Structures are given as C-alpha cells and as structure tokens.
Amino acid sequence: MGRAPCCSKVGLHRGPWTPREDTLLTKYIQAHGEGQWKSLPKKAGLLRCGKSCRLRWMNYLRPDIKRGNITPEEDDLIIRMHSLLGNKWSLIAGRLPGRTDNEIKNYWNTHLSKKMNDSKEKDEKEGGETVAKKKNSDGNKRKNKNNSKREKNKKKNKGSKEEESPKTQVYLPKPIRVKPSNLARTNSSSFTSFDSNNSATTSQEKEEDNNNNNNGEGEGDVTKAWTEETNNLVFLGEIGVNKKNNMDENDGFGFYFDGREDLVLNNNNSDMEGQSYNYYGMEDHLNHHGTLEKLYEEYLQVLNMEDNMYELDSFAESLMV
DNA sequence: AATGCATGCAACCGCGTCGCT
DNA sequence: GAGCGACGCGGTTGCATGCAT
C-alpha cells in the first residue's frame, strides 16, 4: 500500500550517521544550500536517501540548532502551545528558536505528556472523579511493545482518540502544512517578541521569502486550533498566514472561521468590511492593516496570564461572537 | 555482576500537500 | 483536472544508556 519507502534501495545506508557522512552533508549544504534533497546525496557523495539527508540536516546538523536541555521557560511555552495547537510540532518549534519539531515532539512524549497526565490524574482525584486512564499514554510508553501496534491499528479507525480524551483537548481536523518561515522565529527563547525580519533559516525559505515579497495573492497556509469542551466546540480560531504576503508591509495573516464561510476573513477579502468582530481589537487588525505580530502579542498576553486555560476559553469564546 | 526493564533520542515510515506539467 | 515528484509533518520504531532488582 502506498509508495515504496524512499530508503529501500539496495546499497543505501540507514541507521545512525557517521561523522564522515555528517561532514559531507554539512559541507555540501554550506556550498550549495538546502533543497533538491533527492539529488543531494548523489551530488554530495552520500549513500543516503534524500529524505534521510534532509532529516539529519534539519534535526541535527543545522548551525542554528540549540543544544542542551529544554529550559523551564521553553518547557512552559511548549505546554501552553500544545494546549492551544495540539501536536503541531513544527509550529511549536517555529516559536522556539533553535529547537526542532522532532526534539519538541520527543520532549513532549518523554517528559511533558507524562507530566500532564500526572497533573490530570491529580485533578481528577481532587475532583473526586474516576476517569479511565488514557490507554498507552507515553508515561507507560512501550511497556508492552504490542501496544503501539495495537494503537497503530486503532488509528486506522479514526476517531478513537477523541472518544477517550476527557476535559479540554485540542481538536485537530485535518493536517495543514505550516512552515516555520511563516511564523517567524524570535531571536530569544522567551517567546516575547516577534521577529520582524521574518528571517528565514534556509535557502529554500529565503527563496520563499523573496516570493513572499512579490505580491499579496494566495490563500495561505492555515493553522487551526480550537478546543472542545465536553461536546460543545469552543472555537479557538485559526491563525492563518498568507504566505505570499510580506509580513512586514502587509497583513500577514487571515483569520478563518472553519465551516462558516460567511465569516471567512483575510486582508484580501473586502467582504469583511463593515462586520463587527469582538475579539481583542481584531477589527483593528483587519481594518487598520494590523500584523500577525500584533495578533501574536495579544495571543501571548493571554498565554501569559495566570489560569491560562480559563483565559484561553474566554479568548476562544470571544472569537465566536 | 548479571539481568531485565525504563527512558531518551535519533532515525525511519507513511501519508498529506504543494507545485509543476 | 489528473498525474507525478518533491517536500514536510506527525507517528512510530530501534537502540544505546541508565536504573532497579
């Protein structure tokens, strides 16, 4: 089923990378830039598939990768972002300079999900509720290896995840690609400022940035996030980035209300004028050429508030007006 | 010291999306 | 619009290491 694995070709190396391979890859990319991953291994003299090269570069060799442990600030930010966005690792990573989606994903799976489960259990105990433990949580990861295979089969029948989850959860509709370059990284790890230069970290992203400066057309990539409380959807909104917009000069975002096309907003949509949106100055953003940066700052304020889940709910409810 | 289990992380896999023809 | 290749993402696995017994 599906296409054949890209690394299945006979003669290609798999498994851990050797220092020599790292050097070859690094030197090649330094000389020629990223991209063209399929042909890259051949040109660089590597016996690897392009996919493997890309992964190695993105997750390990890139010069801007931050080494060392996740700081408490980053830890906190990951939790908050995850509560808002769900498993959008690349998006979360985009807000953590020097961290990769893989690293954050691993960190979540090994540290935070357990932490969250623990606190959840604590809450449940305090609330006197007895809710069945989530099956195969990462805290119990691979105690029984067959579990993962069972989970795999379970995922073939979609929907089981939602059924199990208590309380507020992030509900992810369908996968939507969001590139880190769309949500520019900050220069600090504190998630308090927006990189106004929208600095791209790869040659490909730079190329895209150049394209971005050309015009304001295009639907844009969209990241969706909304919370679900019990059976009632509490819409949290979608942060969309018009990838062909220049984020410095034009509104780099659109705001979409899923399933309600009459409320679809973006800066190219003149229909939005005259409509009233009661959301933290949303109207200002839309009508006065606000920026994604501003939206993010407001979003950050909400995130930084104490009891942020309550505040996030309020934030979400405000979007529904 | 030997053994088995748990953990963390790098790497792989499958699949969705995009862009080109 | 269909077909295809490239890219990127999220889930999963493999394996080295640490820890407990």
SSE layout:
Blueprint: H1 19-32, H2 40-44, H3 50-61, H4 72-85, H5 89-94, H6 101-126, H7 145-156, H8 160-164, E1 169-170, H9 203-212, E2 221-224, E3 227-229, E4 232-234, E5 238-241, E6 253-255, E7 265-266, H10 282-287, H11 292-304, H12 308-319
Antiparallel strand pairs: 1-3, 2-5, 3-4, 5-6, 6-7
The chain binds a DNA duplex (21 and 21 nucleotides) through helix 3, helix 6 and helix 7.
Account of the 3D structure:
This protein has 321 residues and is α+β, with helices and mostly antiparallel strands. Among the domains are: 19-61, Orthogonal Bundle (Arc Repressor Mutant, subunit A); 162-319, no CATH class. 42% of the residues lie in helices and 7% in strands. It has twelve helices and seven strands. The protein has helices spanning 19-32, 40-44, 50-61, 72-85, 89-94, 101-126, 145-156, 160-164, 203-212, 282-287, 292-304, 308-319, and strands at residues 169-170, 221-224, 227-229, 232-234, 238-241, 253-255, 265-266. It has a four-stranded antiparallel beta sheet, with no helix packed on it. The model is unreliable at 1-5, 128-295 and 305-321 (pLDDT under 50). It binds a DNA duplex (21 and 21 nucleotides) through helix 3, helix 6 and helix 7.
How would you describe this structure in keywords?
single chain, 321 residues, alpha+beta, Arc Repressor Mutant, subunit A, four-stranded antiparallel beta sheet, three-stranded antiparallel beta sheet, 12 helices, 7 strands, disordered C terminus, DNA-binding, DNA binding
